[in-house]
Specification:
single chain; mainly alpha; rod-shaped
């Protein structure tokens, strides 16, 4: 009977330790997670240098860039300006 009680205490101690480890892990993760916010910045697409306001990045992170634009005007020129024309890059040399 006594060994049964000791066995129950051992299992209770194991579960308690596991719960503490999980709680500490979740709290540490929540406190150290970066506060990611999407960067929403309008740009004018034109040949040359584009200056944008400064923003902070994490050096050891990977980023996904998404570009939304209206299909107004010359779509071929737009493809060249955003670097989408990879199959026929000579089309971008045509000054229209």
């Amino acid at each position: 009977m006594k060994s049964s009680k000791i066995q129950q205490y051992k299992w209770a101690l194991v579960f308690l330790c596991a719960a503490i480890v999980i709680a500490v892990t979740l709290i540490t993760d929540a406190l150290t997670r970066p506060n990611w916010q999407p960067l929403n910045m309008p740009l004018q697409l034109r040949v040359g240098t584009v200056k944008t306001p400064q923003f902070k990045i994490e050096d050891d992170s990977e980023y996904l860039i998404s570009i939304d634009f209206d299909r107004k005007g010359d779509f071929q020129k737009l493809k060249c300006l955003i670097g989408m024309e990879t199959i026929y890059p000579d089309r971008c040399n045509d000054k229209r």
